[in-house]
Amino acid sequence: MNINTATAQTVLLSEAAAARVSNQLAKNAAKALRFAAKKSGCSGYSYVLDFANEIDSDDHVFEMYGVTVVVDPVSLPILNGTMIDYVSEGLNQTFKFINPKATDECGCGESFAVSA
């Protein structure tokens, strides 16, 4: 387990996202939020949010606003610097990802590309 500081590789949560995640972690009796990127969609990758009850020895661990976020070492280079926000869009509320490494997104917004 690699515990990261603000000067190391970083994934960030907004206060709104942290509040939503904290609520969902409590409802699901989970230890942390697992944030990953998987090959998918027309642009190359999609974001994956899941509950984590175990933290693997090679996971990178980030803590913000009392919420633990874990990222596997394969996903970290793709997600490094990403801010996870929780926003209202009309009548819907959703997580929004602000990834400085994303170079393109598909029209549906479900996948993204990063530069090689």
Summary, kept brief:
The chain is mainly beta and 116 residues long.
Q: Output the strand order for the largest sheet.
A: 1-5-6-3-4
Order of helices and strands: EEHEEEEHEEEE
Q: What is the third-level CATH name, the topology?
A: Hypothetical Protein Aq_1857, Chain: A
Report the total helices.
2
Oligomer: single chain
Task: Report on the architecture of this protein.
With 116 residues, this protein is mainly beta. It has one domain: HesB-like domain (Hypothetical Protein Aq_1857, Chain: A). Helix content is 15%, strand content 46%. The chain has a five-stranded mixed sheet with strand order 1-5-6-3-4. Strands 2-7-8 form a three-stranded mixed sheet. The protein is globular, with a radius of gyration of 14 Å. The two termini are 26 Å apart.
Describe the secondary structure blueprint for this structure.
Elements: E1 2-3, E2 12-13, H1 15-27, E3 32-40, E4 44-52, E5 60-64, E6 67-71, H2 76-79, E7 83-89, E8 92-98, E9 102-105, E10 112-114
Parallel strand pairs: 1-5, 2-7, 3-6
Antiparallel strand pairs: 3-4, 5-6, 7-8, 9-10
Features:
mainly beta, 5-stranded mixed β-sheet, Hypothetical Protein Aq_1857, Chain: A, 116 residues, 3-stranded mixed β-sheet, 15% helix, 2 helices
